[in-house]
Each structure stands twice: as C-alpha cells, then as structure tokens.
Amino acid sequence: MRTQLRRLDTTALVYLALIGVLIIGAVLVATTGRNFFSPGNVRDILTGMSVLGFVAIGQTLVILGASLDLSVPYVMSLASLVAAQTMNGSDAMVLPAVLLTLVVTACIGLANGLIVTVLGVHGFVATLGVGLILKGYLDTNYKGTEGSVPWSFQLFGATGVGPVPISTIVMLALAGLVAFLLVRTRFGHHLFAVGGNSEVARLSGVRQRLPLIGAHIGSSVCAGLAGLLLASRLGVGSPTVGSQGSYDLLSIAAVVLGGTVLMGGRGSIWGTIGGVAIFAVLDNLMSVMQFNPFLKDVIRGLVIIIAVALYARRRVIARRIRFADAPPGPNIATGAVPERDLEIDRDLETDGDLETDRDPEAEREGSRG
Amino acid sequence: MNPRTPEARLGDGGLRRLIGRAADPRGAVVVLLIVILIAIVVLNPSFAEPGALMRFIQRVSPVAIVAIGQYFVIVSGEFDLSMGAVVTAQVMTAGHLIGEDDSKTVPVLIIMLVIGGVVGIVNGLATTLLKVPSFIVTLGTMLVIHGAVMWWTGGAATGNPAESFRQLGRGGIEGIPILGLLPYAVLILVAVTVFAVWISRRPFGRTVVAIGDNAEAVAFAGANVWRTKTLAFVLSSLAATVAGVLLAGYAGVHPSVGQGYEFTAITAVVLGGVVLGGGRGTVLGALIGAFTLESLFTLLNFTSVPATMRDAIQGAIIIAAVAYSGVVFAKKRRRPATSATTSPTNDQTDPSTTSAGTLSPIQLTGGDEAARK
Questions:
Q1: Distance from B188 to chain A by nearest Cα, in Å?
Q2: Packing angle of the helix pair B163-170, B225-250 (nearest 10 deg)
Q3: What CATH number should be reported for the domain whose range is A2-290?
Q4: Which of A296, A312, A365, B199 is 20 to 30 Å from B32 by CA-CA measure?
C-alpha cells in the first residue's frame, strides 16, 4: 500500500489532495446549510485562482530552472500602472497598452535573467534586488492609484462563460501553452536539463543561459498578465496591488505545493495549477466559514508545511523511476541524486540501491577530471 | 636579495597587498563601510561624536543581531524567512503580557526565549527530519507565527510594556566618560557578537560551515547533520527574539515592527560576503554587512535622495555586491588552472609584502615556497 502510494505521480497526488479539500469544504459548508458548489461560489473559487494562477505559471518556469522570482509583486504593480495609464480610459488604447505592458515586463524579465546568468547572481538575490529597485521606483513616482481602464477592458476581469470567468479560461489556456512548451519543445527540455544540473547540461551541449533567461522573461510576462488582470478588475492601476497580496511567496508556495522541486529540474505546470486550486479552495472555504483573516494565514502556513512534508517523503522515488532503465555506470550523468535517497529508499529493491550508490561516485569522478 | 621577483621591482608590495585585500569581496565591504562613514561625517560632522556614534550603533543593533542569527542558517545552506515574523511576535508578546507590570518583566522574557527556541526547533526539525526545503518551512512558520500573533492580539498596537523592560532597548549606563551614555543595546550587541564568534570557532561553528559546503561529506564524516542544522535555526530564532526585545524598547509595540526583517537580514548577510547556499562566510562579515547597510540608509537620510528610493538603492547594492563577489571568486578559481606558471609568484606576494622585498629572510622564504611548488 505504501509503495503504491509512493508510485503515484506527484501531480495525481496534488489533485487527490485537491479533491480531499473540496470534500472537506463541501461537508463543512453543508453543515451551515449552504451549498459549496453553487454557481456563485464556483465562480468565486475560479476567480480566486486566476491571478495567483498567472503568477504561479511563471514562477514554475523559473523554479524549474533552479532559480526564483521574488520580483513578481512589483512587476504586477508596475504592469497595472503602465496599462491603466496608457489606456487612460480610451478604448482605442487597449491593445497598445497591453502590448506595451508585455514589452515592459519582458524587459524586466530579461534584466532578471541576465543578472542571474551572466553576472552569476543567485536568483533569490537578483530578483529580490530587482524587486526592491522596482519598489523604490513605484514608491517614489506614484502616490496612489492612477490611470483608468476603459469598460471594454474591464470586461476581461468581469465576464464569464457560465460560472467560469474569462480570466480563468485565459489562465488555463496559458497553462496549456506553457505545459506544451515544457514537454514538447527544445526550450522546455533544456530548461529541465539546466534546472536539474546546470553543469551536466553544459557538458551535454546545452546552452545554460538561454533557457534560464527565457524562463525569467516568461515569469515576468506572466506576472505582467496578472497585473493586467488586476488592473481590469480594479479599473485603475495601483502601486501596491502586487505587494498587498504577497504574491511572491504565495506563488512559490503554490508551485511547491504543486509538486515542483524547489531545487529545480522536476515538476509540472498542471501540478502548479492544482496547487493554486488548493489555495483558492482553502481561501474560499475560510471566507465562506467567516474565519478570522489572521487565522487564515495560520492555516495557510500549516497547509504549506504539512503538504510539502508529505511530498518530500515520496518525491524522490519519482526521480529514480525515470532513470531505472538506464544502464548503471559513469556514463549516466544523472547528477544531483540527493543523498537522502539512500536513507529513504533503503526499504526498496536492492538493485535500485546499488544504482544510487554508484551515481554520486560517478558524479564526483566527473567533477574531479 | 632576489631582484627578479616582481614585487622587488615594484617595491610597493604592502600597497599591492592592501589593494588585493580591498578587492576581495570581504575586504570590499569594509572599504564600502569606511567610505560611507566618511561620507556621512563629511555631510554631518556631528555624527563622528562618540555619543552620536553610540546612538548609531544602538539603532543598528537589532538588525545586526538578526543578521548574525541569519548567518548561521545561511552558512548551513538554508534560509530563515520567519525571522521578521518572530521579531513581530516577540514585540507583540512583550506588549501584551508585560503591560505596566514591572514584576512580569523577567518571567515574560523567559517565555519569549522559550517561544524563540520552539520556533527554531520546529523550523530545524521540519527542514532536517521532514526534508521540507527550509525556504518553504520558514515561509510557512512565518505565516503561522504572524497570523497567530495577530489573531491573538487583534492586530492592533497596544500600550508599551513596562519601563524596566523598555530600558533594555532604549536605556543605557549613564555617566561614562567621553561616551556619555553607553546603551544596553550596544552591550548586548557586543555580547551577541562575542558569543557568535566564539561559537563559530567551536566544533559547532565549523560543522555548520562544512554542512553548508557539503552536507553529505559531513554526514559521512560522522557529524550529526540534523542536530547541527536545528541548532542553527534555534540560534537564528533566538537572535530574532533578542532583536525583538531591543525593538520593543527602542521602537515600541506595533504590529509593523519587524516587518521585512528577514530580507534585510539576508541582504546584510549577503553583503557581508556570506554566500547563499552555504559554506562560505564569517560572523564578522555578517556584522559588517549589517552596519554597511544601515550606514548606507543613514547616508541617504542626510542626502536629498527621497526616502522611498532607499529600497531601490538597497536592491542595486545587493545585486552589485553578489555579482562582484561572484566575479572575484570565479577569477580566483580559474587562476590556478589557466595560468599555472604565474600563480606561484602571485602567492609569493602575500608572505613577503610587509617589508616590500627589502628584507632578505622574508624574501627567501617566499622564494623557498615558490621553489617547493
């Protein structure tokens, strides 16, 4: 039973957890005599998913490349301001404003990517620094909300097909596109390779920098899309809209909750969407049950730790199955097989143990030469 | 007596060595600190008075103590994002439990230390035994602690704690010659620094650095990785607790006290030459990083730069510092491989520089070393 649970794909586990949360939510809400799955509530949950979803899709890219993006809240705020100011209430400016926002955010992502790859600054520090620079710019130049968004663009955040908001559909479409990029294109494969082990990727002939720069641009553009969505909801641009939601840490938490490894190289977009959905359902549940807003943070924190603790025990096996068929020997540069494998998987088949015993040694041999 | 060595020709080895030291990232931050302090004194000469300097150190103390705590966690290869929340929690605890009752000061101090210890143990055990990345663990505990304290206190500022408690943060020993007032915060900072330096030279401190470099090797060498890491987290939370005690006295009780301290501490530590990912850095580096950061903010206060640009400058500085140290370390690593013939002479400059190639014994030892290589 235990091994069966371990064999389960991480993404499947995320969705099992989501179903569990949904069941708990439905039961709890039913005790108060209401329906958790009423169209209005489903719409609320899906709306809650959309903004964090956009940010988390981008964050997944960056984390897969073994980097981080802490600048997203400020990119979102800046995007909402750029969009709202450029539109300034006129319908004709909607398209130019959206394009300008995407270009601006792409430039920020390019800066992040170049600092991380060319200057060799840790992603945490680089994006924290860029975020602080943006924060300083925003705080200095904007005293409050500015610009205005025409009604035609506000519809983006306000309408829906049945109970499903347009913004969520766009977010899911973007998730599909990015998932396709990751699984089917060279960019995706190289990003996984660089995130798993940058040095091995380089030795295998992968340009280390390009995928990571691409991931950072993707992350900033996704944050820009989230900022556009927020601008369309608020009707104005706001310099604090991103940092108020602490989207940087929540998006990282959602990505990790979705089974992506924080050290990079493993994970999936659909897992992230599952993680975002878990957050959205929990938030909605706590709102419906009228929890104290501070208690929400407590529960969020506990869920993050407990959920990730559950994955951390079984995620390792997924990495091993991937390489189980490969012949053992120094030629498999599986790279970062964490030493914790040895501890956790001692109860598994012996041939597997032999293989893990060999890998770190082969790696060390390689790095010495 | 060896005229062919480069420093004998140049004859300014001492200067070159000094420049070499200053170009080193850890030396560079000291140079930066000195430059900033000189700039402050030029703009505001009264800053150099002993009393004003003491007040400056008093103001930096909480940040410096938090940075020293963060140092142990970062050098072991982990993050502690919960520090800011711990500071806030301790400040609010002090405000709520002590109230106006002087007799409660000591018991509540003990309670606060226990809270700090428990947070550290939880962070450490979840990271080491549950194998959750520390970034996620401490992010979770940050949310939990902050939420729990705000839930308990209602998220509102309360009255300040009793005066005897606040003395720790704002008071001092009066009547000292020259200084005038010696703040308790400065004494506490000195005590924390001495303790941290001492413990970083004990087996514990060495093991923490080794774990940050290569945890597997340390485990194979027989050290207890999880216990050491947990202890590092405990030290970090206790440092946040001490900072909370100081801030409750210095800044008063408010739910925004301590906000963002985790990132300030990480910035300070990184500025001080401690490498994210662990394995490299010193306590004093973290301390100097904290002082550099705070003196930079002080300098900005004296200039016409708007206060809101403070963040932007902090961001630019941290990127520049890490990029610079990365470039220097990469160059150092590359040097022996690409220019093997020149490296012995480079090494040789170090032992012989004090007398700049004029005294033969030192020159000879340098030559011997080169010959041995």
A1: 30
A2: 110
A3: 1.10.3470
A4: B199
